[in-house]
Design goal:
Elements (H helix, E strand, L loop, with lengths): L15 H8 L3 H7 L8 H4 L6 E7 L2 E6 L4 E6 L12 E7 L5 E2 L16 E7 L4 E2 L6 E2 L4 E10 L5 E10 L8 E8 L17
């Protein structure tokens, strides 16, 4: 993977202000300011090539560790609190088939499983302003990220996690920015390689 070149903004519904900022993007400025993680925030991190590790931190908090950029996302099934960070505050709920939602987390017992069928919906706010892409395409601190996490079992026994992300940002986007990412489940931690944030790949 290589960093997209300046001006490579295909499929991103940017407004004029966003384009102006992206055209002025300079990774050296981010390096000097200690902002190497601007493209590793919640709206972009699931699109960064790498591996994820998903565990329950407690009965009401799902933890997602990402090795690229050494980032951690916390999905709270109770009201999240805290200061603005790259990963923001994420409120999670199970969405069952037929449109029925639910706010419960794991559900009591340590080995309890999430509901069968449906999606995990996660809405993230209170994020530090960052980049949707590694080449300076901006999102603001007022952006809202809505994600749907779906498990897709395959006939050959493989299991995929499909993450659909919708970014809404009236400051920089003319409409919702929608992307999806796919992760194949592994049986071990082979390839897990935590690395720091970088302005280049």
């Amino acid at each position: 993977m290589v960093t997209p070149t300046k001006g490579d903004y295909q499929a991103v519904p940017m407004n004029a202000e966003a384009r102006k900022l992206a055209d002025a993007w300079d990774p050296a400025i981010d390096d000097a300011a200690g902002n190497q993680c601007k493209s590793y925030g919640a709206p972009a991190i699931m699109r960064v090539p790498g591996r994820v590790h998903i565990t329950w931190q407690d009965d009401q908090t799902l933890r997602v560790d990402i090795d690229t950029g050494t980032q951690t996302r916390l999905f709270h099934f109770e009201n999240p609190t805290g200061d603005a960070t790259w990963q923001g505050r994420s409120a999670a709920q199970w969405e069952r088939p037929g449109g029925r939602g639910g706010g419960a987390g794991r559900g009591g017992a340590p080995d309890a499983a999430p509901p069968k069928g449906g999606s995990l919906k996660v809405v993230t706010t209170n994020m530090r302003a960052g980049y949707l892409r590694k080449n300076g395409v901006p999102y603001s601190e007022n952006a809202v990220l809505t994600e749907y996490f779906d498990v897709a079992p395959q006939r050959n026994g493989d299991q995929w996690l499909v993450v659909t992300a919708i970014v809404d940002d009236p400051k920089y986007l003319t409409q919702s920015f929608v992307v999806s990412s796919h992760f194949k489940k592994q049986t071990d931690a082979k390839g897990w390689d935590p690395t720091p944030c970088s302005t280049t790949w």
